[in-house]
Amino acid sequence: MKNIVVLGGGESGVGAAILAKQKGYQVFLSDIGKIANEHKKVLLHHAINWEENQHTKASILAANVVVKSPGIPDTIKLIKEIKEKGIPVISEIEFAAQHTQIPIIAITGSNGKTTTTQWIFDVLKRGGLTVEAVGNIGESFAKAVAEKTPDYFVVEVSSFQLDGIKTFRPHIAVLTNITPDHLDRYEGSFEKYTASKFRLIENQTAEDYFIYDSDNEVIKNYVINNNIQGIQIPLSLKPIKGSGTYIEAEDIIIETEKTTIHMPNTKIALQGEHNAKNAMAAATVAKLLKIRKQTIRESLENFQGVEHRLEKVLKINNVQYINDSKATNINATYYALDSMSENTIWIVGGVDKGNNYQELIGLVNEKVKAIICLGVDNEKIKSSFSNCVDTILETSSMQEAVNAAYSIAEKGNTVLLSPACASFDLFENYEDRGRQFKEAIRNL
Question: Where does the chain bind ATP (predicted)?
Answer without folding.
Answer: 109-115
